Amino acid sequence: MSVFVLLLGFPGVGKLTIAKELGSLISAKVVDNHWFNNPILRLLDEEGTAPLPKGIWEYTGRVRQAVLDAITAYSGSSANFIFTHAGVEGDERSARTYQQFFDAAGQRAAVFVPVRLLCAEEELARRVSSLARRDHLKTTDVETSRSRSQQAVVLNIPHQHALTLDVTLTSPLESAAAIRDHVVTCLPNGR
Question: Which of 33, 108, 100 is nearest to 76 (CA)?
């Protein structure tokens, strides 16, 4: 049985860090959202200061779909995957992205487990300010992080295997262990 875990959360919440810990716990391949975004974003403004062109996310969506199609067609039937996505409630593009992951899991007959990662505003601002994030084309804008925390909600599409986890005070390993334990309960016969 294959598992698709989708970690949803605002930039800086620790999606990739938790995904790496979880990947070792459930023997899964990690596919970060920046794998889809960065091939396109690296073609643009080197400094990352210019506004992104309208429509650029359609190109990253195509990259994402190509990766999901390759996984569906060529990965082993028992291979597990962990994906990351900075989905926002009420955003059509976020919902379409979620649907891409959901559909790919269905095509593989994989157990789909969406996990919302939440974090308190101050801690999220501290995490997002790390300059190491810039090297990976990740946002480091504290004011945008604060604004997002105050005005937006992490994507929350109802699903029977959904989990919401506050990671403000937990280590990445503790968060990954909680997700692993939840994934086990989602599997047929708990295996």
Answer: 108
142-151 and 121-128 helices, crossing angle to 10°: 150
Q: How far apart are alpha carbons 191 and 188 in whole angstroms? A: 7
d(CA 179, CA 151): 27
d(CA 111, CA 180): 13
* Tokens linked to 105: 């899991």
Which residues 6+ apart lie within 8 Å of 5 measured at CB? 19, 22, 26, 28, 80, 81, 82, 83, 113, 115, 179, 183
Task: Quote the CA–CA distance of 99 and 140 in Å, as a whole number.
Answer: 28
Chain CA centroid to CA 48, Å: 21
Contact assessment for residue 118 and residue 168, using Cβ atoms and an 8 Å cutoff: yes
Whether 170 and 178 have beta carbons less than 8 Å apart is answered as: yes
- Mean pLDDT computed over 14-34: 95
Concatenating the DSSP letter of every residue in 32-97 gives: -HHHHHHHHHTTS-TTS-SPPPTTHHHHHHHHHHHHHHHHHHHS-TT-EEEEEE--BTT-HHHHHH
Q: Specify the pTM.
A: 0.90
Q: What is the pLDDT of residues 128-183, one digit of tens each?
A: 877 676 666 667 676 776 777 788 899 999 999 999 999 999 999 999 999 999 99
